[in-house]
Amino acid sequence: MTGTNIAFVHARRVWDSRGRPTVEADVMLENGAVGRAIAPAGASTGSAEALDLRDGGEAFGGYDVQHAVANVNTEIARAVTGMDAANQAALDNRLIALDGTANKSRLGANALLPVSMAAAHAAAHAAGLPLFRYLADDDATLIPLPQIQIFGGGAHAGRRVDIQDFMIVCPAADSFAQALEWTAEVYRAAGKLMAEAGTLAGVADEGGWWPVFSTNEQALDMLVRAIERAGFKPGHQVGIALDIAASEFGRAGRYKLALEDRELDSAGMIDLLSGWIARYPILSIEDPLAEDDPEGFAAFTRLHGKSLQIVGDDFLVSDAARVRDAAANGAANTVLLKPNQRGTLTETLDAWAAAKEAGFSAIVSARSGETEDTTIVHIAVGWGAGQLKVGSFTRGERMAKWNEMLRVEESLGARARFAGGTVLGRSR
Ligand code: PGA
Ligand code: ZN
Q1: pTM over 0.85
Q2: Counting Cβ atoms within 10 Å, is residue 90 exposed (0-12), middle (13-18) or buried (19+)?
Q3: Would you call 356 a catalytic residue per the annotation?
Q4: How confident is the model over 32-67, as pLDDT tens digits?
Q5: Which of 24, 248, 338, 404 is catalytic?
Q6: Which atom of ligand 1 is nearest to 164's Cα?
């Protein structure tokens, strides 16, 4: 392709959904095509994630990103100017080599990722393609099954409950559009139930209802009632997906459940979750054990991996080598793909390639700190990942992504294939 060399890179500080600073990058090509992308940020981060470079100090609670912005505008801009934006792998490899650390701690994943993604946007514009088509090898018609949060929790809700995400999936919906319609009804029903119980108290970080519950089970009961109140059958019509985010309260084989005031070992944690799986229509569980408990992960997968989607987020951190290790050890059967856990699109794609090879499923995921950026929607379709998780069904930074997926589905017309339940990970 001609004219797709990078002419100009510029970063600026913008603000995310928590009111914290983050990095936006613009990439302009010699042919005038432009791309723009913004780095998201996690709150419950895995310890093996690429580093989100923050300035520290007094301003904005230490979360400022002036160094990351400056890194883009100096070193990174110099290194990639003149490179072909249409060669993503070469561009990303340059970024990786320039940083030179294993965890992107010199320049920051939040400096590298927006450049990596903005370059893809610019190259797609230059090719006259929507980003999802540009990112695809094939015809990219698989529309993902969404996991949508109804109640927030964990680190996203002041640790009001231990469990981080109480979500639903709608595997029996005919289309993504219909899955959103069903979710809207369940979300509304959950709000009504909370109001009736006198516990309606606004929303958590990702837009799910604030979790005023006295046990984790009470939240699960309320979720089942919301599904029923909305007129659906809990189970394979509308099922439950949980992100336990167990690394937040588990370390060295000890799990401290604050809400229930008890401490469990790994086997106790597995028993607790097994009880929930028996009693509730749970189709997917993310990070059921902590990132430092691979044996627990493997034991849990031996018990439930045939019938349940078991997702590694903090455990796998979108890392190809970790996915291969987990597969070899029979731990988990699905990888959460968050581009900012690695810092480049290419490394995130490597993790998805490793997952496919291992027979794992994948869920492309947003972070709890988000913006209007919709790049991950295009990644999910372009790579044929089959599932997408971007938080709840309120707040603009979440709705921007659901609405973008509606546009993608509509643009594919009769060629769109909604993944439904076919993609829910199981060991095979
Ligand atoms: P995070 O939460 O972005 O705060 O890490 C999302 C998740 O755990 O899946
Ligand atoms: Zn998670």
Answers
A1: yes
A2: middle
A3: no
A4: 999 999 999 999 999 999 999 999 999 999 999 999
A5: 338
A6: 8
